[in-house]
Recover the amino acids of this structure.
């Protein structure tokens, strides 16, 4: 278990620092094996990291990308679609070797099976894993299933998760948020060689505090990241605000 915590002044600085670390790890993998694999998170908390990462000097033609989650039965044309998010903010700006998307439309179980087989064909080098306001990782809301061996599965979204999506502006109301999503499962997330988490903003302060101060607990899914051999957590002054009394 190894945790490296970096506290930045603001989300922009956080994004640049996190992107630099991600790029270093990808370049190391390319130097060692001639290729690299990355998992990318989405959401408002990843804006600065994603933008900074596209500017990093990485041989993207040797990088395969996977992503964490997607809503079930949501069109890619919807503003909240994570496929759309990644294509617009990342894939269109770098020349990847391949991009593998979670598809919540059509035959969902068939899509999950195909994506799982592709993901598990080789080890992922870097998992870029955000933390939700309720402490979730991907769409593994509390209580998260820490035991499943599945790579991806369909889950029901909890109320606080839905409220976060509304708060970030992806949907007009909780009623508009899909009931289900496909998510990468916790054990699969932990199988990445390295994990980098970008967690800015005051709305994440409680989740950051709970993640770092509580024991590993499915009710705070992000606590599982503390068991990883190389977890790099990037927070800013606002998301770190509740850690002051804890001594961080």
């Amino acid at each position: 278990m190894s945790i490296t915590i970096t506290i930045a002044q603001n989300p922009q600085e956080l994004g640049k620092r996190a992107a630099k670390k991600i790029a270093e790890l990808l370049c190391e993998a390319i130097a060692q094996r001639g290729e690299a694999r990355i998992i990318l998170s989405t959401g408002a908390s990843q804006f600065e990291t994603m933008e900074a990462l596209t500017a990093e000097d990485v041989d993207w033609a040797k990088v395969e990308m996977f992503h964490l989650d997607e809503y079930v039965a949501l069109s890619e044309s919807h503003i909240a679609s994570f496929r759309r998010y990644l294509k617009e903010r990342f894939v269109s700006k770098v020349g990847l070797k391949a991009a593998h998307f979670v598809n919540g439309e059509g035959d969902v179980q068939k899509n999950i099976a195909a994506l799982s087989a592709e993901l598990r064909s080789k080890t992922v080098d870097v998992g870029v894993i955000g933390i939700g306001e309720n402490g979730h990782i991907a769409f593994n809301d509390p209580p998260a299933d820490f035991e499943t061996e599945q790579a991806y599965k369909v889950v029901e979204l909890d109320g606080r998760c839905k409220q976060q999506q509304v708060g970030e502006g992806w949907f007009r109301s909780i009623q508009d948020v899909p009931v289900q999503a496909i998510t990468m499962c916790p054990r699969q997330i932990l199988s990445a060689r390295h994990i980098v988490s970008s967690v800015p903003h005051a709305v994440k302060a409680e989740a950051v505090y709970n993640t770092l101060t509580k024991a590993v607990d499915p009710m705070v899914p992000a606590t599982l990241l503390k068991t990883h051999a190389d977890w790099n957590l990037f927070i800013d002054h606002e998301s770190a605000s509740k850690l002051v009394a804890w001594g961080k």
Observations:
- The helical segments are 11-33, 47-54, 82-89, 108-119, 159-167, 186-190, 205-213.
- The mean pLDDT is 96.
